[in-house]
Fold these 3 entries.
Entry 1:
Amino acid sequence: MPHIDYFFSTLSPFTYLAGNRLEEIAEARGATITYKPMDILALFPRTGGIVPQERHPSRLEYRMQEIKRWAKKTGMPMNPRPAHSPTNAAPSSYAIIAAQLSGGNVGPLVQAFLRAGWAEEKDIARDDVVRECLGNCGFDPSLADSGLLTGAETYAANLEEAVKRGVFGSPFYITDTDERFWGQDRLADLDAHLAGKL
């Protein structure tokens, strides 16, 4: 059975724009997924990147155009300049880690946090938002409290693993054969690879 390690940030607009396509691909190809939320703002300087706030205006303008184009292509509601961006991604990430350890289906929870930040004008660093997302996705809202220590340790470990394995952005997908795919615009390539066509 193929496996995908999914490195991502709940702050990433392109991770939001991936929607549930990864989960659809995994289901179609019989693949499993391990969700690995990471600190994207700490990853960038360690892998040759620049945090968005410090990028050249031409790069920021192009990024904004791409976000708007992809929102139209996917039909996903989106505010490309949300009220709470950037915010602290740790609380949502800890909740995802705790939910995954509990054995539930984490895909909808990841998407709930991304949608909250990029389409619903919510601050995913707030405890009430974290609890709401957990509850709406069938998880015990108390995971927001019980998973803090493990969440912090795993979140830090995910960053170190990402650096070691060649991750430099979000979303980033690595197969069990170490094939790497960066960006929601490479999901078709990931699918083709899992199908043995690429």
Entry 2:
Amino acid sequence: MSKQLNKSLTVSPFFLFFLIHSTQTGVGLLNFQSKIIKGAEQDAWVSIVLVGISLHLIIWLLYFLLKKSNNGDIMSLHQQLFGRWIGNVLNIFFYGYMLLIVSTIIRSYLSVLVTWVFPYTPIWFLSLTMIFVISYLVVGGFRVITGICFWGMLVPSLLLFTVYFPLKYAYWTNLLPVFNHSLSDYFVSAKESILMYSGPEFLLIYFPFIKNNQISQKWAHISQAYTTILYLLVTIISFVYFSHGQLEHVTWPTLMMSKIIRFPFIERFEYIFIFLWLLVILPPCCMALWGAIRVLKESFKFKPRRSLWMSIIIVHLIVINVNSKIEVEEIGDFLKYITSSFLYIYLPILFMFYLILQNFKKAKSGKINP
């Protein structure tokens, strides 16, 4: 049975809607269209839906494992299943995964800033500025991060009203023909879309901070469904606005669509779009950094302040050493591989190992007859 923290440290189950959705929408929402079209082309929206549905199974798996964990998090689950030493080694890998998420998101967003807004500003300066903001929020604790997640969900939802402008130039025939690709093509598009759906795995860390967490699962599924609908909508709008050939050569399709938006009092709406997107990338960055600090605290009893300094130094070093656009894509591809392996390979293995271990214990105690 998982542990429930003091109520003053927890948030209502309803906030799971914001916590999960806001950690799933990040920089990937700006350029995922040009990646998923490489496989199933105009049918890539099918892969978006299928991956979204598969995440509901992952969420069920997460809840199953967390309910069996002693403290309701992955750190105690690792120690419970593999012992203290091996469990802590696995926790270190999870710590590295959290830092990789923060580094990749920050560096990807800085690529947008340098290309569109600050072409002559050093990466190290922009990195320190962002890390300072993220660290300041993380110091506030989980409830502050939850508040940031609320705004991280609200901003992209409000920007949905701007879809009217690209729809004026839509060619709906771009979606035709339908269902004319092989399974391997759908698999390629699905593989490219997995990274933008990452976020539910943070539940492995903040689950004890949810009130009545044992019965909060419905909000996680509602949030995942909303994310799937959002990505599906953006995908279809992009496909009917851009041709297949254009999407293959456009780096940030969502930003390019924002360039056509004109108001009498705003000339360059894409600049507002870019700066507002900072509120979108803050939730996953804050959650991952907070999660990394908590991993060290629960596994090795590190003080949070020391863990924070060590973590942000590592993140800054990673960010400033990723220089070219190719290296940015490479670190994104590496994170995509790690995320896919964690969600679809490691978690099922952990699930099977738990079942085998439980059956072994029952057999050993004589509850199962030979």
Entry 3:
Amino acid sequence: MTIVLTEPPEAEPLTLAEVKAHLRIDQTDEDAGLQALIAVARQHLERETGLCLMAQTLRLILDDWPATGVIQIARGPVQAIEDVCYYDENGTVVHVSLQGHVLDGQNRPARLWLKNRPLPGRALNGIEVTFSAGFGEAATDVPGPLKRAMLIHVGYMHAFRGVLPPDQQPAGIPDGYERLIAAYRLRRL
């Protein structure tokens, strides 16, 4: 199972103004660096929790249908299933009807049941499920503790800006970060 980002979020959960107010920065000479750190903080938080903070489109790639008939989607919250397709024995893309499908997008992991599950013609990567996930389009849709975790993380990374460039961040995790995101982590046995 592989998940690929096909359409990134159009906005970040934190605005530049929020971050600058948190860091008490008035000048504009660090704006580009702060924007980069906001994106790094979001991406790190999404990896740590398995959540999509802002609306985005992803593709789940499977080798075969699960034996239970229920496809588990590890990224969420899943808002909608946009397309399900498989590759036949000739490598042609065949779209699966979504009529009668059942989606439990708020569950962790999200679950999808399809009425029609034809066998793919490929042994590997034969099935693709395209879905939209995220708390919403607006930053106000993101839970407060996650935004707060991002704020302190951006502040922490900003303190290391002379040591590590944004593409090598995060430099570390600030105190309190783990407590803020603990309730949002996906627990596995």
